[in-house]
TrEMBL record:
The lineage of its organism: Bacteria, Bacillati, Bacillota, Bacilli, Bacillales. GO terms for molecular function: hydrolase activity; metal ion binding. Pfam families: Lactamase_B. This is MBL fold metallo-hydrolase. It comes from Bacillus mesophilum. Its cofactor is Zn(2+).
Length: 211
């Protein structure tokens, strides 16, 4: 599986396009700049199968409806944040100076529990990793050794927990219980900044000392 990182929107949030040999792809967290993302997918001649959301903060969903409607594909989100898509007070767009209130249509599929999932030829695991927000999830692709972690874990850092629904202790527990148990060679694709690995963060992340 190939992966592409495309920073989008006012906060340059990492959107990921995950593609396999037959040119099918998944789009994770289309945060803004819909035309740029659509052009990239079309230039690669990819065939999007779905949009996966690691969580529903405004900088991860800003281009959601435009991309969903253009490619006519379903959206997946955790039940804890299903209502955030159309509530600016919850997705944060009401409190940040981004020039608009984010109100998206409801998701097509609501994720309710950890499980193995398959969308087309993509097989992956849904890991619940709350703390940055209540419905934060990680999409883990074991065959490719890739974990798309949203804003849970970053290179040398962790997600902020001072936004509505954030919980520092819960985030540390999520990282310890769900992410640090993955193989050390697992590539972590974060919501902001460069990619890292589980092993690198176990060794050097100052927020995870003691684990």
């Amino acid at each position: 599986m190939k992966w592409h990182c495309i920073p989008l929107g006012a906060l340059q949030t990492n959107c990921y396009v995950l593609a396999i040999d037959n040119q099918n792809c998944l789009i994770v967290d289309p945060g803004g700049d819909a035309e740029r993302l659509i052009s990239f997918v079309n230039e690669k001649k990819y065939q999007p199968q779905a949009i996966l959301l690691t969580h529903a903060h405004f900088d991860h969903i800003g281009a959601l409806d435009e991309v969903r409607d253009y490619f006519d594909i379903p959206v997946y989100i955790h039940e804890q944040e299903a209502g955030w898509l159309f509530d600016p007070s919850l997705n944060g767009s009401q409190f940040f100076q981004i020039g608009t209130l984010i109100r998206m249509k409801p998701a097509d599929h609501i994720l309710t529990e950890e499980k193995h999932m398959q969308i087309g030829d993509f097989k992956f695991q849904l890991l619940e990793t709350p703390g940055h927000s209540p419905g934060s999830v990680t999409f883990y692709f074991p065959e490719s050794s890739i974990a798309v972690s949203g804003d849970a874990l970053f290179q040398g850092s962790i997600g902020r927990t001072d936004l509505p629904g954030g919980n520092h202790a819960q985030l540390i527990k999520s990282i310890h219980d769900k992410l640090l148990g993955l193989p050390e060679e697992t590539i972590v694709l974060s919501g902001h900044g460069p990619a890292t690995t589980i092993g690198e963060e176990m060794d050097s992340n100052p927020f995870l000392n003691g684990f």
